[in-house]
């Protein structure tokens, strides 16, 4: 079983090398915006650190399953490693988000990377000596993704220290698109090739990537914009609950959580059965499926990077575009009879995911004050990983009934979300524009007694009708 899985990732890795060039060339079009309104130099240092770290993440995406396959022939054993990776962020994102808001963002990101490097270095040594069993691999996978979740919550807030609010949309586009390209296209391909050379190599490369990322972040200098209440006034459990309150309070925040969670659940169900669709239902075989998968993923990232204007759309328009593209992509996958059709379907669905991710992340960064961004990120991480886990289970069950059923069901879910929420989504346009945000520290400057709910702008808790009435009253004054 390990040889079969390795061959599949070797094929994907070879396809990735050829397809990545096309995505990189397409992405150059967005450079025009960078020339007109450039990012600060610190952003590119941050971007470089993220890229190196994401490569390690991508390598280990296949490294853990391949190691599990080499240790046990049981599909349940392999699945246990993958499930463990998802459990860590699902269970720990909220407390880790609270810690991210307490600690210095840059130092926390450096420490998380160094801890991951140490973890993977020890794991590589154990694998080389054949002392790491399945139980040990499960423990390493859980610890690695717990540290990765802390890094995500921290860097999600660190972006707000590095770039001005007017740059949030474009910065998120670069970060998300590059993350998807490196962590889910290039990294897995490289990981498959490395594993074929030596079982411990993916772990060694991962450890080196985290050391390099930590070194770059250590040189980064950013102002600390957070208000620092006295330690006696901070209660950790209360801060953990704040992550839930901030993420799910009435208004745009709850709507964004519902739309994103539903889309994540539906897409996870379709991704869970993509190998079955390509290799069995359509009959491409491992080689043809590897090319189709790589081409579709790279096309999705290249399209987003080449369409810089997507960040200038209203939030509601970006969400609606994502739902339409996602539904079309899933329909193509559900009716696919060839490799190119699978590639186009994957490109549309992947592009939809990236677009809505950029749009909603930017909207949340404009709504939530800097000192609460870690908790907010933790709340949404919990939603996405919980929805993804449930969706994977549902998708596997549907695939047992019919190989095309998960994709047709996903398209139906997208259509239902579009029909039900089309009017409510307009309320997302009430999110304050970057120029309207008075300082990065936000309302927390009022002191530690201010509650997180009060820190979020009042518009965030209003319905579209209430927001419109509020604007009309302000105009009358």
TrEMBL record:
TM region positions: 12-31, 43-64, 76-98, 110-128, 134-162, 174-195, 201-220, 255-277, 289-307, 319-336, 342-361, 382-399, 405-422
One Pfam family it belongs to: MFS_3
Region (Disordered): 433-477
Matches recorded under Gene3D superfamilies: MFS general substrate transporter like domains
Name of protein: MFS transporter
Membrane topology: Multi-pass membrane protein
Keywords of this entry: Cell membrane, Membrane, Transmembrane, Transmembrane helix, Transport
Keyword Transferase: no
Domain of life: Bacteria
UniProt keyword Ribosomal protein, yes or no: no
CDD domains: MFS_MefA_like
Organism the protein comes from: Catenulispora subtropica
Subcellular location: Cell membrane
């Amino acid at each position: 079983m390990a040889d079969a899985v390795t061959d599949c990732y070797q094929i994907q890795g070879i396809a990735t090398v050829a397809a990545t060039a096309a995505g990189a060339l397409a992405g150059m079009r967005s450079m025009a915006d960078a020339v007109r309104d450039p990012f600060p130099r610190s952003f590119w240092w941050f971007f470089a650190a993220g890229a190196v770290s994401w490569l390690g993440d991508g390598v280990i995406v296949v490294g853990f399953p391949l190691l599990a396959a080499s240790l046990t022939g049981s599909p349940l054993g392999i699945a246990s490693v993958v499930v463990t990776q998802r459990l860590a962020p699902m269970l720990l994102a909220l407390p880790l988000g609270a810690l991210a808001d307490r600690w210095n963002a840059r130092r926390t990101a450096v420490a998380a990377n160094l801890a991951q490097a140490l973890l993977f270095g020890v794991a590589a040594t154990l694998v080389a000596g054949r002392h790491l069993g399945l139980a040990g691999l499960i423990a390493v996978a859980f610890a690695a993704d717990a540290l990765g979740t802390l890094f995500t919550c921290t860097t999600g807030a660190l972006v707000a220290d590095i770039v001005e609010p007017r740059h949030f949309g474009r910065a998120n586009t670069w970060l998300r698109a590059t993350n998807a390209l490196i962590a889910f296209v290039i990294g897995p391909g490289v990981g498959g090739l490395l594993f074929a050379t030596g079982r411990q190599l993916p772990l060694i490369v991962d450890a080196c990537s985290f050391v390099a990322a930590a070194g770059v972040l250590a040189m980064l200098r950013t102002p600390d914009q957070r208000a620092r209440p006295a330690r006696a006034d901070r209660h950790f459990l209360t801060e953990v609950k704040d992550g839930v309150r901030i993420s799910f309070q009435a208004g745009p925040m709850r709507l964004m959580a519902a739309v994103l969670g539903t889309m994540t659940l539906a897409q996870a169900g379709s991704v869970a059965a993509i190998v079955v669709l390509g290799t069995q239902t359509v009959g491409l075989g491992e080689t043809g499926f590897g090319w189709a998968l790589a081409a579709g993923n790279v096309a999705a990232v290249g399209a987003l990077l080449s369409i810089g204007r997507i960040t200038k759309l209203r939030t509601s328009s970006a969400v609606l575009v994502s739902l339409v593209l996602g539904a079309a992509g899933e329909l193509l996958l559900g009716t696919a009879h060839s490799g190119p059709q699978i590639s186009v379907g994957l490109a549309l669905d992947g592009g939809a995911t990236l677009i809505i991710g950029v749009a909603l992340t930017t909207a949340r960064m404009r709504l939530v004050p800097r000192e609460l961004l870690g908790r907010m990120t933790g709340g949404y991480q919990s939603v996405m990983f919980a929805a993804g886990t449930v969706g994977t289970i549902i998708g596997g069950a549907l695939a047992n009934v019919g190989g095309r059923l998960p994709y047709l069901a996903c398209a139906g879910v997208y259509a239902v979300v579009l029909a039900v929420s089309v009017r409510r989504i307009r309320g997302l346009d009430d999110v304050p524009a970057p120029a309207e945000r008075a300082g990065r520290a936000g309302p927390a400057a009022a002191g530690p007694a201010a509650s997180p709910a009060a820190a979020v702008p009042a518009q965030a808790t209003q319905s579209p009708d209430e927001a419109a009435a509020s604007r009309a009253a302000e105009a009358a004054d």
